[in-house]
Amino acid sequence: MSNKVIKEPSNQLEYIISSKQEHEYSKAVNKLFDLALTYIEDAEKGNRLGRKAAWTQGVFEAPLFYACDTVPISAIDLGRLSSRNSVQIAEEAFDLPKETCSMISVLLGEWVLRNNSSVKRVVAFNNACEPFNMAYELIREQGYDVFRVEGAIRPKLNHDGRLDQVIKFLSGELGDLAVWLTGKQLDESRMAREIARMNRILAKVRTVMELRLKNSLYIKSLPTMFILMGSGHYFGKPDEFEAVLDELIDELNSSDVIPSPLGKVIPLTWIGARGLEFGVYKAVDDCGGALLSWFTPNPYDRNWREDVPPLESMARYILDYFLVGSPVHQIKGIERMIEQSSSKGIFFYHYVGCAFGGVHVEIFRDYFKKRGIPSIGLDGCFQVGAPSGQLLTRVRAFIEMFS
Prior knowledge:
Keywords: Iron, Iron-sulfur, Metal-binding. This protein is of the alpha/beta class. The chain has 16 helices and 8 strands. It has helices spanning 12-22, 27-48, 62-67, 75-80, 86-94, 102-113, 130-140, 162-182, 188-212, 221-233, 238-254, 278-286, 310-319, 331-341, 355-370, 389-400; strands at 52-56, 70-74, 121-125, 145-149, 266-272, 289-295, 345-351, 375-380. The strands form 3 sheets. It has a 4-stranded parallel β-sheet, with helices on both faces. A two-stranded parallel ribbon has the order 1-2.
């Protein structure tokens, strides 16, 4: 382990560089960060050279996109290394109210900045949230080609075959998306192979997460978040991302356990948005915490079905997705994660101005409070820079409760 002194980071890039230095013993973690740092730039460059690409959520689209020879560029990843003036640009360009969700403001500002230099195709899944739907229409006015996938909320039960109808409708929408991406009907055998690859990668992500239970500090919080992000889009390089996972598994199986400098590791769970304020993750690590289970928009605890047609498999996966429908459908999965990781407490994270995420968090918090599991709600911001001192103080105080 290195004894070099690292100054406190002040922006997202510096947090990544700091984490690379902290993980200098792991070639795999450093390769992971390199994939993350080059992801969007390489996708944009490839598009200029003729390779198809489109902006999207970067969560569940990989099998369809790669089956269509199209790189999915995660709009959420765009915000992680955004410009400091993105929000100001968006507010001036679109006359946004100050209370607009910071994630929407940042992404709109970034798309304005890239209007003449980047990929101009955008896939919009309409069941995300209304502010996102508004953003898609605003960038359409800026000259972006937006394809809307009309979604639906999963019915609680399959009364009168309603779930079957929703699945059929969404499958049709996804088939239309494939035509928009390529100009021809989907090659279903190709997509079936991509679904098999997705399941293989998700299995490897689960293996990494299981091995972290035994060696919690080998891969700390920030690179773990990037592993989960990458599971949704592979950073545009499927083979390289899977190779990184294989290398991480080999390292975790062969490396000595890294002891906590504070004497013990406090297992914790993260629920909600993946977070842009990387300083929160660093504060968790520095206080002796370890985020060992994550319930975020990148679910790694489930597979895609391979016994049904590919578009139906994707439709079913989307309808079971974290952000679609009532969060009460997800509670059993969270309980299972908490039990497997022996978590002592929960972080609930959502962005300021996101009423959609805030409602979900409150439902979750109320449920787990009644079961005696300590938790803390964090109102984060999607703008670049270090987190506020108040936010870090709350994180540290919460972890110190378990010391």
